[in-house]
Amino acid sequence: MSLFWASALSAEVSLHNQQHDELLVTNAMVVVGVGTPAEGPYDLHIKGGLIHNIISSRADSTLRRSEIQQLDANGGYVLPGFINMHAHSMYQRAGMDMAQPYQHYLWLASGITTVRDLGSDLVVTLQEREKSAQHQIIAPRIFAYPGIWGNHSEKDLKKIIGDYSKQDVDGLKFGMMDKQTFVAASKIAKAYGLKVANHVGVEDMNAWDNIKAGTTSIEHWYGVPDAALHGVQHFPPDMNYSNELHRFRYAGRLWREADQDKLSAVLKGMAEAGVAWNPTLVIYEASRDLQRATSSPWFKDYLHPGLEKFFEPSADSHGSFFWGWTTTDEVFWKNNYQLWFKALREFSNQGGLITAGEDAGYIYQLFGFGYLRELQLHQEAGFHPLEVLKHATVNAAQVLGQGDKLGQIRTGYVADMVIVNGNPMADLSVLWPRNIKPLTGDDSTGGIVWTLKDGIPYHAPTMLKAVRDQVKASRQKNKVNYLVETK
Asked: Which residues of 100-109 are buried (b: 16+ CB within 10 A; e: fewer)?
């Protein structure tokens, strides 16, 4: 099988970034995205960037005998394009330029065809959104959610949100607001028809306020266990929330203080109000296993030196709080995850929508790779791989308000697809690139081979090689050796 795949790739690599009016993806085992098992093999007829028809590969098809360009999936699994619901576009880190296509290629090579960009430089984000929509750059589809942080007067909020609305943003990200600001901002956002992703932090508001305000999605977990406390969290007398070592240390002790009955009511309230939950499980994983996080196998070839520098423990870099991390902290966080997992399962059982996002660029998480690890953590939380893929596709599309266009391999939907050399239902690690050996399985399988966005094929190995070359050049330019190589 490995030789067969190598032969197919060499024959079809010329399809990379080539737009065709019609394209036929053949011999595909299809996972629709709605939670149902794989079906096939099918041929997927793409026309005008949409899925025009789905035909049995065993049928006598005139399409195969026609002049339509074909891309052979070779019996690989075809999934809907992944939607990254917590993305940050970055162009510089630690004073080093980190020019695109570094990030865009990593996302696409990881199967991510759509990102919800939260709080990045709006001018640049809108420019990239347009270029991506016009296929002028190789990049995922972008939904722009500029950030509003901290506390503001209602007058200022009206101006800020009004100005954003004039720029045709897709939604807003709220962060670290007190209750008064949040309530005012939510009313104004609703008047403009703008969705809200909320990173509430530790404030005088919690998930009940999100429920009343109709927040689109709660990011991470802030406000959920807080709403189930008896009073406030048991912070020590010297707690300083501005000290990120304190902040993340005691976040790891929060879930254990939540009252289970009160928490169940909160989760039911969120589900009934349609408040989605985007947990970003992966961004906290270093807190429970710092050694694993700092030694990720993809760092050697794909970690930009600017990110490597930014990740080093420092009070000056957000999320780089590990200068005083202890075994005790990790133990609390390991237990914290189990309680968090349980809450996610209960929320889902209540009918709540869970989505997938990475929040990469912080806390040892690399773009794309962090997202794929996020999917594995959803499985660890107790979800079947088919449910995990539903979080990454159907659920996310629904939260974006794009459920009738994105997130499914279905006739009439946008032709966003991920073609994988292997069966992710049996082993999610087959999504890793081929030069990152899967933890299980044989050497003949593994790796996303193609990512299609709007029906345009992007060859994942080609993009990953470009990233490796860019990282190597940046290390030479900045006179930085990768940390493992310096030992």
From this structure: bbbbbbbbbb
The pLDDT tens digits of the residues spanning 148-160 come to: 999 999 999 999 9
Q: φ, ψ for residue 29 (rounded to 5)?
A: -85, 115
Residue 249 CA to residue 155 CA, distance in Å, equals 36
Structure tokens at 102: 């570094």
Nearest-Å Rg of the Cα atoms of the chain is 22
For tokens 């950030």, name the residue.
Answer: 147
Q: Is 395 helix (H, G, I), strand (E, B) or coil?
A: helix
Residue 260 has a CB neighbour count (10 Å cut-off) of 12
| Contact predicate 175/201, CB 8 Å | yes
pLDDT 10s digits, 50-96: 999 999 998 877 888 888 999 999 999 999 999 999 999 999 999 99
CA–CA separation, 365 and 370 (whole Å): 5
Interval 373-385: pLDDT, tens:
999 999 999 999 9
> What are the structure tokens assigned to 401, written together?
């308000």
CA distance to 141, 319, 359, per residue, from 316 (Å): 32, 9, 18
CA distance 480 to 281: 30
pLDDT of residue 439: 66
Which DSSP letter does residue 358 get?
-
The separation between CA 273 and the C-alpha centre of its own chain, rounded to angstroms, equals 23
Per-residue tokens: 428? 């999610």
Whole-angstrom distance, CA of residue 18 vs CA of residue 8:
17
Rounded to whole angstroms, how far apart are CA atoms 435 and 133?
30
Q: Is 111 helix (H, G, I), strand (E, B) or coil?
A: coil
Tokens of 240: 């300083």
CB-based contacts of 190, cutoff 8 Å, min separation 6: 213, 214
First and final C-alpha spacing in the chain: 38
Per residue in 295-317, pLDDT (tens digit) is: 999 999 999 999 999 999 999 99
